Q: What sequence folds into this?
């Protein structure tokens, strides 16, 4: 998983049956903040539908389109 990849979170559902949330990886290195679980690799995602950023465990995400 690298910056620029499009990802989805399998099992996630948007409201009104819009399907799964789609996002883009924006950072793969932590921002220096200990998020309570340093053993879990997290990546920053920009969620397109929600227009917001969040740090998610990489193992929860599935790459649907790799950056070229």
A:
């Amino acid at each position: 998983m690298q910056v620029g990849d499009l990802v989805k979170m399998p099992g996630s559902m948007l409201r009104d049956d819009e399907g799964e949330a789609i996002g883009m990886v924006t950072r793969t290195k932590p921002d220096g903040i200990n998020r309570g679980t340093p053993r879990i690799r997290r990546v920053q995602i920009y969620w397109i539908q929600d227009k917001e950023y969040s740090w998610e465990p990489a193992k929860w995400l599935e790459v649907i389109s790799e950056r070229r």
In short: Residues 6-65 form one domain.
